[in-house]
Design brief:
The model has no long low-confidence stretch (mean pLDDT 90). This protein has one domain. It contains 4 helices and 3 strands, in the order ααααβββ. A 3-stranded antiparallel sheet has the order 1-2-3. By secondary structure, the chain is α+β, with helices and mostly antiparallel strands. The structure holds zinc ion.
């Protein structure tokens, strides 16, 4: 870890160290999200090249790339259809917190409505899932 400059107070250094630890913890998750989307983009191109654009695999690529409505129209797998429908609802849900309950980060999702990779959070108090930057 880079040394923290000496002009910070002990409290500031502790806050910075805590923040750096937090970032180290969340980074792998974020990298997974970016990696998953990169793979989906590559898979989508390959499927288009082989004209396999009616497969559930293609729908999955559309889903990962944030085109959830098109993915829902295409997917045959009932469980995925249900899950993606719920995720679309979460994306469209108002960004304001449901309640004061603690929130758990499930993953990040490409959301055109939010303009990019956006946290998918579940409230541990009321169970509401929301896609929100707030
Ligand atoms: Zn809640």
């Amino acid at each position: 870890m880079a040394a923290i400059p000496e002009h910070f107070t002990a409290e500031e250094k502790e806050a910075i160290t805590t923040e750096l630890d937090r970032r180290a913890l969340v980074r792998p998750q974020h990298d997974n999200d970016s990696e998953r989307i990169r793979e989906a983009a590559q898979r989508k191109v390959a499927l288009e090249a082989s004209n396999q654009t009616d497969a559930d695999e293609y729908a999955e690529c559309l889903y990962e790339l944030g085109d959830i409505e098109a993915a829902l129209a295409l997917v045959r797998n009932v469980r995925k259809k249900e899950l993606w429908g719920e995720r679309l609802e979460a994306i469209l849900r108002p960004d304001e917190p449901c309640c004061n309950g603690p929130k758990h980060l499930i993953r990040r999702q490409l959301s055109p409505r939010h303009g990019g990779l956006t946290p998918v959070v579940q409230c541990l108090a009321c169970g509401t899932v929301n896609v929100t930057n707030k």
